[in-house]
Structures are given as C-alpha cells and as structure tokens.
Write a structure and sequence with these properties.
Elements lengths: L1 E4 L2 E4 L13 E2 L1 E2 L2 E2 H8 L7 H12 L2 H7 L1
Antiparallel strand pairs: 1-2, 2-3, 4-5
Length: 70
C-alpha cells in the first residue's frame, strides 16, 4: 500500500516477498508523477478532493484496477 506523507508518497505495506520495498518513496509510475495519477483517479470516487485522493490510493494499489482506469 502507498500512503501520502508531507514529503511524498511512500510504500507502507507490502507482501512479504516485497518487504524490501517498505519505506521507499514512490514518485512516478511508468513516468507519470503519482500525484497526477491520483488526481486523475478522483473521477472514480465522490466527496471532497482530499477524501477522493485517499480513496484513489486503493485503486493505485491494485495493478488490475489501475490498468482498467487507464
């Protein structure tokens, strides 16, 4: 799972096979800034932007949902 902190997005939970990724900062996915991806995912949730951004992290954590969202 990825979680936003004041200084960026970080991996806070991972499968045991990827435990070495914990604490790493995530700045881009396939060359697109994470903040831009999350802003684009807002359309799939409702409410204020900060709530929508947090809900978008669920989509961001799922490769299948992220791919489906384009």
């Amino acid at each position: 799972d990825i979680y936003p902190f004041i200084d960026g997005y970080f991996i806070v939970r991972a499968h045991k096979d990827y435990a070495d990724l914990l604490g790493n900062r995530v700045s881009q996915i396939n060359g697109t800034p994470v903040a831009d991806i999350i802003a684009g995912l807002r359309r799939y949730t409702g409410g204020p932007d900060n709530w929508r951004d947090m809900q978008s992290l669920n989509i961001l954590s799922s490769p299948r949902l992220l791919h489906a969202a384009g």
